[in-house]
UniProtKB/TrEMBL annotation:
Top-level taxon of the source organism: Bacteria
Keyword Signal attached: no
Keywords: Transferase
Entry annotated with the keyword Ligase: no
Protein name: GNAT family N-acetyltransferase
Any Pfam family the entry gives: Acetyltransf_1
UniProt domain N-acetyltransferase: residue ranges: 7-197
InterPro entries associated with the record: Acyl_CoA_acyltransferase, GNAT_dom
Gene Ontology MF annotations: acyltransferase activity, transferring groups other than amino-acyl groups
Length: 201
């Protein structure tokens, strides 16, 4: 991925990503009260955390969108589970919003995850951020849970399903009974038992 809309995409490492965020984006969010997890850990916990990071071989990406030399947006994602990709962080400069940058980045992320074989994409957002929620809903993301997060406060978790039967399973869990043959075949016999109970057998 070299370009999104008319903007250059630069892949960077984690340190470069956060350095850019704190120098060029942090001042745009003066009223947010967040905590940095790493800063709350003891030295021993930090050392162990570094070892955990070395042991994982997850896919991860850090992107900076640039208008010439100016950083205008940041996007970061990583493999959360074998077939689950986590859109972990994203921000667009105020003056570059409402140009479709987030929408196009989501399109690219969904396309990328499909190509690699991921079957689910997750992300979280601060519940007061209605703009993000509306953008994600347009891209077929569903609210899967709400959490009181130690670092960020009240957040919502969203999921986008790249497998139709997995999406049907999610709908079923939400009370929208929409079965498929694959759901029936992979229910470990429980659907047939449930059907017998419903029919009084």
């Amino acid at each position: 991925m070299k370009q999104i809309l008319n903007y250059q995409v630069q892949e960077v490492n984690q340190d470069q990503y956060w350095d850019t965020y704190y120098k060029e984006f942090m001042q745009d969010f003066p009223e947010e009260l967040t905590f940095i997890r790493e800063g709350l850990l003891t030295k021993e916990q930090m050392d162990k955390r570094k070892n955990l990071l070395k042991m994982t071989s997850n896919i991860s990406h850090h992107f900076i969108l640039k208008d010439g030399d100016k950083a205008i947006a940041l996007f970061r994602g990583e493999q959360k589970d074998i077939d689950v990709y986590y859109l972990r962080h994203g921000v667009v400069k105020n003056e570059y919003r409402k140009q479709g940058i987030l929408s196009e980045c989501l399109n690219k992320a969904i396309e990328f995850c499909k190509e690699l074989g991921f079957v689910q994409i997750t992300c979280c957002f601060v519940l007061s951020n209605n703009n993000i929620l509306s953008q994600m809903i347009k891209k077929d993301f569903y609210l899967t849970s709400i959490e009181c997060h130690a670092e960020y406060g009240q957040i919502g978790w969203l999921s986008h399903y790249l497998n139709e039967d997995l999406k049907r399973a999610f709908f079923f869990r939400c009370g929208m009974v929409e079965f498929s043959k694959k759901l029936l075949d992979n229910s470990e016999g429980n659907v047939k038992k449930f059907n017998k109970i419903l029919n009084g057998f």
